[in-house]
Amino acid sequence: MSNVFARIVSLAMISVFTQNAIFDRAFGANVAIYASRKDAHVVGFSIAITIMTTLASIISYQFDGLLLPLPYGDLLMPLVYVGIISLLYVIGLLILWKGFPKTFYKVKKYAHLAIFNCAVFGALFLNSTFGKGFAGYVGYGFGTGIGFFFACFLLNIANDRLSSEKIPKIFRGYPIMMIYIGILSLAFNVLVGYTADF
Amino acid sequence: MTAENKKSHINADGLFRQNIVLMSGLVTAPIIVAATTLQRALVLTLSFFAISYFSILICRFIPRKIVYTVRILLYTIVAAALFIPTVIGLRYLFPDTTKEVMLYIELTVVNSLILAKTESRFYLEPYGRMAVDVLIYIAGYAMAAFAAGFVREILSYGTVFGFHVCEPIVPSAKSPFFGFILVGIFAALCRAAAGRRVSSRKERGK
Fold first, then answer.
1. Which runs of E-coded beta strand occur in chain B?
2. What's the pTM?
3. Which end of chain B is more exposed for a tag (fewer CB within 10 A), N or C?
4. Taken in order A93, A98, A101, A105, is the CA torsion positive or negative?
């Protein structure tokens, strides 16, 4: 049991620091930039993405074992993952609608942005390639969500400065944010001494 | 309708002013991480075209009466179904490159052109104009992909479409951090070019 827990924690740490969804793979970079503009969005998006990547990883583990060994099984995976995430999305919205109607009306406009994005889908595809065993899937899925929060937080604290008058007009906002993420990504690469092939 | 009026209906916003990679940043991951050579850029563009264009054309027929939550699910299901023939075709044409960028082709299924732009722009236009408009947006994506692929291939490998041109100058240009910085610089240049176009149009108007 302690071995399983240790594996979950170590894979979660890997996906937060060494293979951060945003800094290492650019998964959901656009969503992170959008979410980082408001404190409430950082928390809301991160919670939604963490819950979704963890639960979807648990379910996808079963399907990966069945479908990936089949010839051309990999071609069906996007369809399967869309099905899993759609199911969780609808269940999540129904729970919010019935249990927390005020929150439901607040989040329904951008709930799909937090769910149908590269960070969530990318975690599942990476799990199918690198995830080993149930604990690996859970750890990687959970870590992707926490890594998203970590990245979003780093973007959020720089947001005001990067939108200030001191930045040349053509760089203000999105362009300087990309350069800032690039520098953070470089720092992570140097810190870890590792880089993904692509 | 005169020819001049017809011409004014074709809006080239998607190419520069609302470029989905460089201006709105709706689809960035494939360009930042995977577009490290021109061949990869070509494969990414073809997959983006095949999945997004046909998904948008097909999903137009999904009734607007269906609630937004369910429509979004249907859009992704159609895109995931189109992924299958797209990858079979790409594996036949570019087996090695397709394998290298497979992760980012898979992620095309949930790109924001299908999930966001359809509702905010494309499905508010007549069908014919929408078909052209989507093509222009995809051309904007292709432009960004090829520009990034060209710069990174020449810097990191010293080649252009695989042909040797010079010695590699910056091998780390194929890293994601360089991709972020390059897209940021391209975005600023694109913004400057779009701003100049608008101001020259205003001057002509005076």
1. 159-160, 163-164
2. 0.91
3. C
4. positive
